[in-house]
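User:
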Amino acid sequence: MADWNTWKDKAIDFTRSGVEKAKELSEIARLNLDNLSEEEKVRQAYMEMGQRYAELHSEDFEAGFELFFEKISSAKENITANKEKIAQIKAEAKAGEETFR
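Assistant: Predicted structure:
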């Protein structure tokens, strides 16, 4: 009977340590998720700050920001060109559909 009690006590201890480890891992995972959320808030704030700076200083930006404004300007030009191409393709497709009617 003593052996059974020893095994039972060891099993209980093992189970308790497993539960404690699971709690630790769960807490670590929760904190990591919280950190990811907070890091996303920081990235979002930086993005909004950059957009605000660009709105306020697109003509009188400080040294070191030239490359950023060039990238923005180039991307906006590409967007405009793509929108024009999309409109042209849609117009041509619509004209083609009317031809088949």
